[in-house]
Amino acid sequence: MSVMSTMPATREASSPSFLEFVVIIAFMMALGSMSIDNLLPAFDFIRSDFGLESTNEVQLILSAYMIGFAIMQLVYGPASDIVGRKPTLMVGLVIFAIGSVIALYSTSFEMLLAARFIQGMGAAATRILSVAIVRDRFQGREMARVMSLTMMVFIIVPIFAPSIGSLFLLFGSWHTIFVSMLVLAALLAVWFGRRMPETLHPEYRMPFSMRRIVDGAKRCLSLRVTVGYATAMGLMFGALMGYLGSTQQIFETEVYGLGAIFPVVFGSIAAVMGVASFVNSKLVRRLGMRRLSHAGICGYLAFAVLMVGLAIAYDGKPPLILFAIALAGCQFLFSLTMPNFNTMAMEPLGDIAGTASSLIGFYTTILGTVVGLVISQNFDGTVLPLALGFVVVGVVALATVLVTERGRLFHPQHADPLPGALADFGGH
Predict the structure, then answer these.
(1) CA atoms within 13 A on the CB side of 215
(2) CA-CA distance, 31 to 126, in Å (whole number)?
(3) pTM
(4) Residue 329 belongs to what domain range?
(5) Least CB-packed of 69, 340, 394, 409 within 10 Å?
(6) Cα–chain-centroid distance for residue 210?
(7) pLDDT-based confidence at residue 312 (cuts at 50, 70, 90)
(8) Residue 1 lies in a domain
(9) 426 band by pLDDT with thresholds 50, 70 and 90
(10) Does some domain include residue 227?
(11) Does residue 205 form part of some domain?
């Protein structure tokens, strides 16, 4: 049942419709995605401007952003449980804007990395608060449905982001891309500020207390379902980060040499992910989160093995169409797992949604960033490191789900509180 239906009747008259609500949340999430994807076509220009020797070195632009993104997730959730969702988001957007301005005036690669770190610190608010706000208003399969619809809109961004970045490069330098980020942050601040009411339930508002924050963290760590699905989600996110880190080298330059066609291929694969999110939103209420996500992780692993087979058969450079089909299959099934894993991890924690979203977001982002960095930094001019990374991630994520579900897959069930020590996650 939707929590929205039980909210006080005093909600602001200007509250958004369901559709506008989904689009606003998607816009929040898209700011972070746009800040990654529209920079991809600028990698070679940035490398040239700062005299970087290795093509892999420029990938640190992504890593610096994600590290800042991960760290600040620990702050925004508890803060939003104390002061509310709206003021916390506005602070995050100001920090993001400061990072964007510093990037505009960067005179060294180190300064640019610092700017990206600050940008990530600000953008973390959009990720944490989007999940917390959805959890404020929905629960269970309805939350999974809303998250899927949000992801569908959000994934439209990568379809166009590299093309938009390339367009900016036609009319200016890579600095103009950071101008666009400033504009997007301002638009989000105005739209959210005018249309979104405060969604934190008054009874869930917490006074500042380190003990309560620590107790919330302990509660998250005591829930088998939360730890398990957050771990699986972090691993899957790592595969995505590995793909993003090496996609420009694979498609645009070193492997397939697509040049200006790179955004088209990248966007086409992103479109497949959008279709998967739509499919998930339609099926999740009927089939349940576990059936869909468990089928998704099993299918993901099968396509990853196919990618490895293709890479070996063609000396690391399989025909573009075959590789793109296998990669699109992985990404389609990836999109059946992530929103459901996230919902199942958050499901028992509605009364501390902000704190829980922070802790889960921090953990999954750190884990994903490290895994993604390992995958992308092993790029060797072929698709084999990416394919092997997908297989390893798929195997470990599936094993994590099996441990979480005590060896049972595809069994629908209610939210699983299962209190107990963290050791229970790895035990019986």
Answers:
(1) 8
(2) 8
(3) 0.72
(4) 16-426
(5) 409
(6) 28
(7) very high
(8) no
(9) very low
(10) yes
(11) yes
Distance CA 42, CA 37 (A): 10
Q: Which residue has the tokens 């070195």?
A: 57
Measure the CA–CA gap between 272 and 226, rounded to whole angstroms: 28
* Any domain includes 347: yes
CA distance 127 to 74: 12
Conformation bin of residue 40: beta by default, left when phi > 0, alpha when psi is -120 to 50: alpha
Task: Let me know: does 422 contact 222? Beta carbons within 8 Å.
Answer: yes
Q: Which tokens sit at 326? A: 């296998």
The pLDDT tens digits for 142-201 are: 777 787 777 666 666 656 777 778 888 888 889 999 998 999 999 999 999 888 888 887
Task: Give the whole-number percent of the chain exceeding pLDDT 70.
Answer: 88
Burial grade of 93 (CB within 10 A; 0-12, 13-18, 19 or more): buried
- Residue 244 corresponds to which tokens in the numbers above? 């993003």
What is the separation, in whole angstroms, between the first and last Cα of the chain? 32
How many other C-beta atoms lie within 10 A of the C-beta of residue 167? 17
Contact predicate 152/278, CB 8 Å: yes
Look up residue 41 and give its two tokens: 């076509």
Q: How far apart are CA 9 and CA 5, in angstroms?
A: 9
Q: How confident is the model at residue 391 (pLDDT cuts 50, 70, 90)?
A: very high
* Total domains in the fold of the chain: 1
Share of the chain above pLDDT 90, in %: 38
Q: Is the pLDDT of residue 44 over 90?
A: no
Q: How far, in Å, CA of 250 to CA of 13, rounded?
A: 50
